[in-house]
Design goal:
heterodimer; A: about 400 residues; alpha/beta; Rossmann fold; 2 domains; 6-stranded mixed beta sheet; B: about 290 residues; mainly alpha; ABC transporter involved in vitamin B12 uptake, BtuC; two-stranded antiparallel sheet; about 70% helix; globular
Chain lengths: ~400, ~290
Amino acid sequence: MKKRALFTLAVSTLFVGLQAVGGSSSVQAAEKTIKFGAPLPLTGALAPEGIKIQRGLNLWMDTANAKGGIKVGNERYKIKIIYQDYQSNTPRAVQTAEKLITDDKVNFLFSPFGSGATKAASGVSEKYGIPTIASTASSEAVYNQGYKYLFGTFTPNITLTQPLTDMVIAKRPETKTVAILARNDFFPLAIANVMKKSAAKRNLKMVFFEKYAIGTMDHSSALVQMKAAKPDWIFATGYLNDLILIRNQMSELGVKVPVLTMVAGPAYKEFIDGTGKLAENITSAAWWHPAVRYNGKGVMGKTENFNKLFKAKYNLVPDYAEASATAAGIIFQLAIETAGTLDHKKVRDALATMDTETFFGPIKFGANGQISSLKPPVFQIRGGKPLVVYPDVIKQIDLKFGIK
Amino acid sequence: MLYLQILLNGLLLGGLYALIAVGFSLVWGVLNVINILHGTFIVLGSYIAYFAHLYFGIHPFASVIISGSVLFCLGYVIQAGIINRVVAAPVLMTLTLTFGLDLLLNNAMLIAFTADYRKLILTDSLGSYDLWGLILPLNRVAGVGLAALLTFGLYRLLRDSNIGRAIVAVRMDREAATLMGVRVNRINAVTFALGALMAGAAGSIFSIIYPISPINSGLFLGKAFVICILGGLGSVPGAMIGGIALGVIESYGALFFGPEHSTTLAFVILIALLIFRPTGIMGRKGYE
């Protein structure tokens, strides 16, 4: 009997407890929230990139919430971002996106990292009609699927390589040959291919074009071959790990070249820390740089203010991936506030017709959903800092040649 | 000259590969434990070297002693405290156990050090030496030299010391060794600790060559598997030969088939070897 009494007591306590929890959550629910889903690679090979996006999104969420959240008609909604880790595994990114939509019932979605996973997951948001912003997808193949609900903050890859090629040739007309070493991966290969196009357009001779496998631990054979081809310009693509290794091995093997461009890594502080003096004079291009100056709308305001807030929160200088994530949040907020409703179709239309400026740059999407208004800066590492060499309006320094 | 340079690069890479595999091969060969932790041990060794250099200015070649000792102790504790409990169980059991331990250690490192890539940069880097047009990357040469020294040390230890002979005895026949008075559990722990020591030392040497991140542990582990199967399990010379073979094959593979297919070639040879000589190049039953 005693046991049963105890059991009843335990059950009733539990029940009361549960009710209390339920009660408090219903109190919370009185504060209206908009749920955003963010499938990100928070562990695994792409974790550094995933964490960058999370930083950018959190900065937007916290700043906007501190200012009262998103204004929808006459009401204010708090922002809640639901993160789901897809462990750097693209098929899982698709499942995760679907889970966020069906289980967590998010109102809007951010894309997973990079062009490959974004393309894979875009079919899911299209199926459910969930407006989705991709903050790290640049390849046109992602946007040319005829989808209506996908928008992206990166311009096509050619907008990175073309200004760079034009500039190198203008400043160093004796540049005749180029060698490309590309990671055999969606974005690094795509940017290598557009570089090939840009080079061909300016009559540069391609003396070496090779791909390396993901997880390559040694680049010496490729570098020795490149060295033998004596190019004026080496263009290497990959992520941090690859590019740090390539740069170090270039130095070990005595590969010297007038122009060395690396995408995407030199914009990150970790790259400069990981290569030290060897980073000097490396050129790169990215969709954003902390030196750009825009008079932005939305909670961040001007670019200077974004840099300041980012520094205050993380004690870091923001890079383009982090900035793009924050911008994606602001773009959603501006679109929702313009639409004055959470209706998916109406927010989607507000995104499609958006024409504004943020700290990230002017925001206007093309018919396929990819941003068309942004002018990506070219920069060069000088004295351990990435400094802008193009466009002229925000130029900090003149392009210099010679890699030892 | 190009071919010679690529041969040299392949040999140097192979020397590093051999160091990855030697500890892994020892543990697999003697204990019949496939140690999934091995890659993470190497990364941990790299972090020890990185921080020793950052805070105390210790050269990574000197911090081999620190990372080797730390990993030796860690390895001893893990084997004596955890793995010994299931060491006699089928190999899948110990594999699962080390897999689980690897998840724990690797994620602990992700939390402690973040996934950001770091790189140890030497202020007094040796640079490279031009030998009649053949470029010798001196840091790498020194690293491989040290690796060879360590491997040779392990080889002599196994051959000449009492504890080494006991390890070999356990490898050949566990029951007989027990009957001869060998304390098998202790030998297990020492063997595992030696494997971890080699991983830690490898990590220290690698810290000047590879960017450091917990994420890289899988890369090292993958190479260790291939090298062990190429060279044959459980023997120090086997791991050496396997490592060097893989380094040279990958380097020439990159030259002839493009860097994209350098590993493809290595795997094709691996499959052929598994079909025609499943014991590996140097593998044989028994030990030494």
